[in-house]
């Protein structure tokens, strides 16, 4: 894939190096030429000096032929402007913007922009690590609005069905690991002792899930 990364700070440079090692064609844009030193001597991609939301700079970076763009500068406003320009004007298929303010992330998510909020994700993950819980967060999506979690089926749910643990729009059992086998369950699938559940849950419904699993 051809990918443009706007911002060559710690996240931008790390992302560029990772994607480059995976074989993608990377172009990094930053207004400070010295920032490109973070990429190291082994980086094989291109660098473009300029402001990420400048139309001419984006064209120079190859946005008209790119498959994805990540806006990860230190400015929420610059990231959103760049992301909207890439998505709505240049029609880039995959666009992600980093936002520090979780409140802004939710607003822009509703407008159809994919955002990542490290603060929201970090808060939830640190809380999980500090407070032992049988409900383990595997990954957070959409800036922390949706989590993929794992938990061992409690004895009270053994013999019950997936449908009884499903709440439309809030909690969905997406997979079950039983012994060495992981499968996608139907709503009528019956839980067995020792099952490991993989669920997708709205962050605001986590407490409800814990109650349903009797983990409170």
Throw out a few tags for this protein.
216 residues; alpha/beta; Rossmann fold; Alpha-Beta Plaits; 2 domains; 28% helix
Low-confidence residue ranges = none
How many strand units? 11
| Shape verdict | elongated
Q: Do you know the CATH topology of the largest domain?
A: Rossmann fold
Count of discrete structural domains = 2
Q: What can be said about the biggest beta sheet?
A: 6 strands, parallel
Broad CATH class of the largest domain: Alpha Beta
Distance between the termini: 45 Å
* Average pLDDT metric: 86
CATH 2nd-level architecture of the largest domain:
3-Layer(aba) Sandwich
What order do the strands of the largest sheet run in, or round the barrel if closed? 3-2-1-4-5-6
The helicity comes to 25-40%
Strand content: 25-35%
Note the total helix count. Answer: 6
What structural class do the secondary elements suggest? alpha/beta
Over all CA atoms, what is the radius of gyration? 21 Å
The secondary-structure element order is EHEEHEHEHEHEEEEEH
CATH superfamily grouping of the largest domain: NAD(P)-binding Rossmann-like Domain
Task: Describe the protein's architecture and organization.
- The protein is α/β, with parallel strands linked by helices and 216 residues long.
- The protein folds into two domains: 2-116, Rossmann fold, CATH 3.40.50; 121-212, Regulator of K+ conductance, C-terminal domain (Alpha-Beta Plaits), CATH 3.30.70.
- The chain has six helices and eleven strands.
- The strands form two sheets. Strands 3-2-1-4-5-6 form a six-stranded parallel sheet, sandwiched between helices. Strands 7-8-11-9-10 form a five-stranded antiparallel sheet.
- Helix 3 (76-89) links the parallel strand 4 and strand 5 (94-98).
- It is elongated.
């Amino acid at each position: 894939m051809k990918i443009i990364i706007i911002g060559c700070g710690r996240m931008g440079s790390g992302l560029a190096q990772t994607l480059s090692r995976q074989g993608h064609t990377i172009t990094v844009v930053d207004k400070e030429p010295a920032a490109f030193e973070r990429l190291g001597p082994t980086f094989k991609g291109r660098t473009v000096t300029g402001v990420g939301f400048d139309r001419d700079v984006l064209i120079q970076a190859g946005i008209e032929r790119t498959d994805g763009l990540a806006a990860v500068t230190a400015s929420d406003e610059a990231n959103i402007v760049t992301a909207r320009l890439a998505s709505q004007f240049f029609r880039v298929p995959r666009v992600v913007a980093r936002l520090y303010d979780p409140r802004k992330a939710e607003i822009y998510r509703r407008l159809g922009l994919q955002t990542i909020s490290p603060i929201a994700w970090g808060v939830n993950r640190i809380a999980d690590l500090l407070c032992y819980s049988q409900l383990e967060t595997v990954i957070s999506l959409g800036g922390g609005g949706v989590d993929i979690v794992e938990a061992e089926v409690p004895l009270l749910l053994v013999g019950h069905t997936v449908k009884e643990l499903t709440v439309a729009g809030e909690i969905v059992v997406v997979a079950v690991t039983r012994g060495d086998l992981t499968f996608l369950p139907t709503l009528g699938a019956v839980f067995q002792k020792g099952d490991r559940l993989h669920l997708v849950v709205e962050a605001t419904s986590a407490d409800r899930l814990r109650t349903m699993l009797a983990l409170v």
